[in-house]
Automatic annotation (TrEMBL):
This is Tc1-like transposase DDE domain-containing protein. Residues 46-144 form the Tc1-like transposase DDE domain. One of its GO terms (molecular function) is nucleic acid binding. It comes from the Eukaryota. It comes from Tenebrio molitor. It holds the Pfam family DDE_3. InterPro entries: RNaseH_sf, Tc1-like_DDE_dom.
């Protein structure tokens, strides 16, 4: 199976990037109305998105609480992965990282039930995951916005807009570069490429 025949879907926690880089210059408001549903004090958002050679899913901002296996199934797999998979084709494979909600038995059983093939993914392998490069692009684009987002609602809107504006040709190039990246990881004996 080459990199072009694989559908790569992933989950992202933007917390490290946003709390240390994107939000460091923001002025924290004195109070945020409850109806906005933003916890600016946590300095983080969590988003999820999926990519393939020819398309991408909508970007999902995951609000309120920890991601559990049940929540991952209910809020991500059912409404986003299952409808997207037929568009890719019968030979697609779901790639998600080894986060606990992704590898839980209930998730594996659900994916088997809905007949979505999924990859066993090695730990600590971001160099092989094309979506990591997309997350990097999105993060860099949000970071240089003028004016900078003022709160988490603005950050969420900016992340969604930047996700939508990435040219699909750029994502396709990432997939086409997979054989080269796999060879580089082999040459590095599994070590980081940077």
């Amino acid at each position: 199976m080459d990199g072009r025949s694989i559908t790569w879907l992933a989950f992202l926690v933007f917390q490290d990037v946003l709390s240390k880089e994107l939000l460091k210059d923001f002025q924290k408001p004195k109070a945020i109305p409850e109806e906005l549903g933003i916890s600016f004090g946590s300095d983080s958002i969590m988003v999820w998105g999926g990519i393939s050679m020819e398309a991408r899913t909508e970007l999902v901002v995951v609000n309120g609480g920890a991601m559990t296996a049940n929540r991952y199934t209910r809020d991500i797999l059912e409404p986003h992965v299952v409808p997207f998979a037929p568009f890719i084709g019968n030979d697609s494979n779901l790639m998600h990282d080894n986060a606990c909600p992704h590898i839980a038995q209930i998730v594996n059983e659900y994916l088997d039930t809905v007949e979505i093939h999924h990859m066993i993914w090695p730990a600590r392998s971001p160099d092989l995951n094309p979506i990591e490069h997309v997350w990097d692009m999105v993060g860099r684009r949000v970071k240089v916005r003028t004016p900078a987002p003022a709160d988490l609602r603005d950050v969420s809107a900016a992340v969604i807009q930047e996700w939508q504006e990435i040219d699909q040709a750029v994502i396709r190039d990432l997939f086409e570069g997979m054989p080269r990246r796999m060879e580089a990881v082999i040459q590095a004996r599994g070590g980081n490429l940077r």
